[in-house]
Predict the structure of Zinc metalloprotease.
Amino acid sequence: MKLNPFNPNNVSVRSGGGGGGFPGGGAGGIGCGTLVIAAIAYFIFGADPMQTIGVVESVQNSGAQQGATSDNPQEVCNQGPYALEACNALSSLNETWQPEFQQAGIGFKQPTLFLYDRGVRTACGSGSSAMGPFYCPGDETIYIDTSFYDTLEQRLGAGGDFARYYVMAHEYGHHIQKLTGLADQIRSAQSQDQRRANQLQVRMELQADCYAGVWAGKNRNLIEPGDFEEGMTAAAAIGDDKLTGGRVSSENFTHGTSAQRSAWLRRGLETGDSDQCDTFADLRR
């Protein structure tokens, strides 16, 4: 996918972290032991790491990042090819979604992209590269250790630039859910009915997949041969049934099956219409 170079005035980026594995003492008392569980949950069960460590958006005084940080777009985005790709994608996502919000009369705020190395502190607690990319609603930031993309290709067999853009666009989809208020509604519903918590989480993830497809669909002129296949391969590679190898029942899935993730990504890509991403429609009948 041939994205235009990022606009330094249209991206909010930071970088930092590192320092030898897990950072000590996360927000809200979240510590190293919980992080290990979250990391295992990601790779073995495909679980949402932020859900695993118990995200609470009202966590206070936890915004400090580990190590030296930079918020200079040119410096952050030119750290390497993956960083540049991520910044190009962020710029494109901002340019694509902001007009959609303006047309709908909903306030829009760009997310921040934080590129870190090994460990980082967030408003949602301590994060680790083992958790994979994630979005923290507490500070409206997408966190990525770009070494994950090597894991995506080498361990999960999902390589290619479009596969990496899909991951970025999926996390951006969670930012959209935050801005529309859906994320808060679902978290409230989950706390009120624990039996439906996983089911609701799956629908959140599938909607984020669809939103990722919508972004690509609205930039169809930039799609190259093979991009669609890369996206479908990536979506299938990170389905709950694929990651768990049948070791976890469907009732405990958190992201959806390979077939579900591929189907919702496809729907968004083919329609380019965010109205087609209502993964909760049948629950309102």
